[in-house]
Amino acid sequence: MHQCTLGDLIEDDVAGFACGKSNLVEQGVVHLRPFNIGLSGEIDLTSTYQIPADAVPKGRGELHAGDILFNNTNSAELVGKAAIVESDFCAGFSNHLTRIRVNKQVALPKYLLYVLLDLREKGTFTAAATQWVSQAAYRVSDLKQLPIRLPPLAEQQRIVEILDRAAAIQRLRRAAEEKAREIIPALFVDMFGDPVNNPKGWPIRLLKEAADIGSGVTKGRKIDGKATIDVPYLRVANVQDGFLDLTEIKTITIMATEREKYALEVGDVVMTEGGDLDKLGRGYVWNGELPYCAHQNHVFRVRADRTQIDPLFLAAFIQSFAGKSYFLRVAKRTTGIASINKTQLSDMPLWLPPVELQREFSRRVSAVNAVVTLHGNATKLGQDATNALALSMLATG
Length: 397
What we know:
By secondary structure, this protein is of the alpha+beta class.
């Protein structure tokens, strides 16, 4: 193993090119954007933009197996994402991305990918990026100056194989979680009927008649001259459709007298006020994962009257076709984005089956979640142990 810089591993790097939305076509050349770069080193082609072939600069519409796309401009927490090209294909890429080609005489492309993923996980790119209002930029010229210790190719291959196994374990874990999220809507339909037309004729009430709805704290407001405290809080990024992503919990400053006002309680349903059309009104149940947690103003807190509504039933109803279609119908829309306000949420029509039936649904959902958690904890232990071994060998400093 010898000391070198990342630049010593890079044979060639090329910046991408800009292409506005006005140039998009239904059939053309794929133009990869930052959202196509996954957090785990993969290229995500779930959604793509396509541009005319003549909009691609000469020689810049092809990617080769082993090429790495580095996301040099993004929000501060996402700058430095990287993904590897698994096989040759025709595609351009945005000016927020740089195509890196590895010198295979000294390094394996996937080894360099794992180095970049590790550096981003450690916060290297975020800490050194140029910061703007909503974006951060990390120069590839700075990337090439970063020092690393480089093992021989055979050792690189061993490290890659270990980290590939850890990634496979993570995929199994995600698959189990996704399967559970498919089971719960099916269970809802089985117990309460098709959410399109309420075939069992359950009584309908407005949400505000069976729950208290609260808005959260506004980030960046002026509270000079008053006693303040910093508290953890849920952001829009933490509230997903059918689960809470608590990987990163940030803190916010509130007045000391507001601590109880913004506190989440076990059983509160938290849901977002807006986002992409397919994510409008996403949310789930807060189960006291932290001793104290507040919520921002873009996340509603719905506190159910337990004599009428079970929280898990409410969360499932919000995610059902009945809930989603209501939000889409009343939401305020701008280009690709929709939002609802507190009044609209309060006026959502809600089925009210007998509360004991709701609680039976909740017990079954909890049983499914318990199995997923048990499986997830086991796979995470294996993944963490594998990661720890391989990352110690990466030696990125």
